Amino acid sequence: MEDNAPLVPEGAQVIEVRTAAIPHVVPTLRTIVADIAMRQDFDLDAVEDLRMAVDEACSLLLPASSDGRLTCVFSWSGPRIEVSVSVLSDTPDHEDDSGLSWQLLTALATSAERTVTPEDGRYLSRVDLVRESQAADS
Amino acid sequence: MSDPAGNSGSDLDVGALFTQLAASPAGSAERERIRDTLVRNHLELARNLARKFRNRDEAMEDLVQIATVGLIHAVDRFDPEQGTDFLAFAVPTISGELRHHFRDNSWSVRVPRRLKELNANISAAREELTVQLSRAPKPSEIASRLGVPIEDVYEGLRAGQGRYGASLDHLLENAAHTRFGAPDAELGQAELREALRPMLDSLPERERKIVALRFGSGMSQSDIARRVGVSQMQVSRLLAATLKKLRSGLDESELADGT
Predict the structure, then answer these.
(1) For residue A77, what are the contacts with CB-CB under 8 A and spacing of at least 6?
(2) Distance from the CA of B239 to the CA of which of A126, B5, B157, B186 falls in 20 to 30 A?
(3) Which residues fall within 8 angstroms of residue B96, CB to CB, at 6 or more apart?
(4) What is the distance between the alpha carbons of residues B185 and B26, in angstroms, rounded to a whole number?
(5) Closest Cβ–Cβ partner in A23, A103, A134 for B175
(6) Cβ B136–A43 below 8 Å, yes or no?
């Protein structure tokens, strides 16, 4: 399981949540990210964006989970928050990038990346989001 | 001065009506009619007052509804003996009804009054700062504007989440990967079917039945033969001839359509 942990930069704080891959956990996850963003003093629009981004990332991956588990890792340091949502999937294919979810994700996050890597005969399907506070340019 | 009741067109004697209303016995049809006229005549007043309470969070129709309830209370409670003008009585009654609504009902989740007030202050500061900074403010900026500890701002912002409930179905509706839209793979089939339909209709009864049994119900030729009362050989021959007819008919109609 350690392999699916994203690279966390030195000095960053991390919260890792392992939970059932059911829609009911999504509100909890997005509340976590909103709280982190608020406490990192992100502007309030960015807080809302992150909340929606986590929502989209989860709903993108939830149906693909083959073992009914979902892992969500939040890490942050200063004006940068990273969220990595992953599930183990039976098939390597995933929704192409034309879906509405993905369009939203790329618009909401500073960067969004989707990866699928083989793991023990199954596939680790993961969405990595980065959102940086606009602090630098204002 | 403009007439706040907005009923300048009608020269209804409100005072006289109230005197009549007080005189008519409770529950009588006459009383109902006068009460109705009084309420209808002041609907515009209720609407105007509702407009004053308008904010982006509450639907205007709801506010008008509440103001109208306030107006009905005002008509019922007004006592012409007191010698005051009805408007002087109605305006505070209706405003009071609207205020009560905002105090008691506008939050889906009950939160302590302190947090409601804090949330209102935060919302106001948020709007001011958004204009000033030309971007959404940060919690720290709100805290220094309001002169409250930042933890209070966090708390107030979180409390704001409870203001409006979301439907439980919301999750289900949002769960799907909605696409921007793609052509249906069976679209070509649908077109062919439509082209085939008039030709099938023009077939003789027996042939149409055989085609339907073979391709619609998936029966074997011998079953069809037994059913229709001809030999299997004949079914085979009829099917082949019919299909040939349909095929050439389809080509022709395609040519005719110029497609």
Answers:
(1) A9, A11, A12, A13
(2) B186
(3) B70
(4) 70
(5) A23
(6) yes
> What is Dmax (Cα atoms) for chain A?
48
What number of H helices and E strands is found in chain B?
A: 13, 0
For residues A2-12, give the mean pLDDT: 61
**What's the number of CA atoms in the CB half-sphere (13 Å) around residue A31?**
12
| Pairwise CB contact (< 8 Å): A43 & B171 | no
> Counting beta carbons within 10 angstroms of the beta carbon of residue B142, is it exposed (0 to 12), middle (13 to 18) or buried (19 or more)?
buried
List, for residues B184-214, the tens digit of each pLDDT value. 777 777 887 888 888 888 888 888 888 888 8
| Two structure tokens written together for B131 | 């204009």
The minimal CB distance from B177 to the residues A35, A41, A100 is found for A100
Q: How many CA atoms lie within 13 Å of B55's alpha carbon, on the beta-carbon side?
A: 10
Beta-strand pair A69-77/A111-119: unpaired
Token couple for B213: 């049994």
pLDDT category, A12, cuts 50, 70, 90?
Answer: confident
Tokens of B43: 């609907």
Q: What are the beta bridge partners of residue A114? A: A127
Does position B1 have pLDDT exceeding 50, yes or no? no
CB A73 within 8 A of CB A83: yes
Residue A126's DSSP bridge partners are A86, A115
pLDDT for B170 beyond 80: no
